Amino acid sequence: MPLLRLRVTYGRVADFLADVRDQVARGGLLVRVDVGSAERGADVALEILTPVGAARPPARVLHVLGPSGVAVELAPDALADLAAKAQTSRGKEPGTDTVHELVSDDAPAPPPPPARPAPPPSHAAQQAQKIQEALHGDKNQRMAILREQNRLLISYVLKNPQIGMEEVMFVAKNPTSSPDLLTFIGNKREWSERADIAIALVRNPKTPIQLAIKLLDFINPNELRNIAKLGNVRDQISSAARKKVLG
To answer: What does the H/E/C string look like for the chain?
Structure first.
């Protein structure tokens, strides 16, 4: 008996996914063509065409249902890869109806349905990607995020294990940095005990005053005198600096 050749062409991704969920996941697929007679268990050359790609899974005859069609047996995961690809391109665009065919040996294969462009990533997906770049990205990626002035993303950059002192200083000196970001820097001893970062935090008008006064302990005497004398910081901080200079 010649090999039975069947083709199912889906014009809509949603129809394909519905058949995968309702039929293939249970081990079969109904191909709605009259194949006449076919031996149960006989191999089937099955071709599945969708807007996102094609597949030719191993199949065999399960039941012949006369004019209603033929049920073919498939492994439940036979179309898993194609279904996963289809999931990422689901949309509400109209498409053509599904076509079931009995294919002769000399029939040319039709072109697959036109593919739809993949939808743009959602805002949530974009945000998740940015967070990953902040946490694990290289210096160029981190600096690009710091310049965006996104408070949430900057907090993740500060937790990146590869962050350099140049980037910490960028946040510490920036007068638009939020008090919580400056507090995070000031509470990390390996950063705040560096004189240059301590000075940047003390001079930043957004640094909480009590934290700025505490950081005066890590500033060298010359800079401490400048802060006490020039008064280019908040009054409480310059007053605390004068007390330290006078002993």
So the answer is: CCCEEEEEECCCHHHHHHHHHHCHHHCEEEECCCCCCCCCCCEEEEEEEECCEEECCEEEEEEECHHHCEEEECCCCCCHHHHHHHHCCCCCCCCCCCEEEECCCCCCCCCCCCCCCCCCCCHHHHHHHHHHHHHHCCHHHHHHHHHHCCHHHHHHHCCCCCCCHHHHHHHHHCCCCCHHHHHHHHCCHHHHCCHHHHHHHHHCCCCCHHHHHHHHHHCCHHHHHHHHHHCCCCHHHHHHHHHHHHC
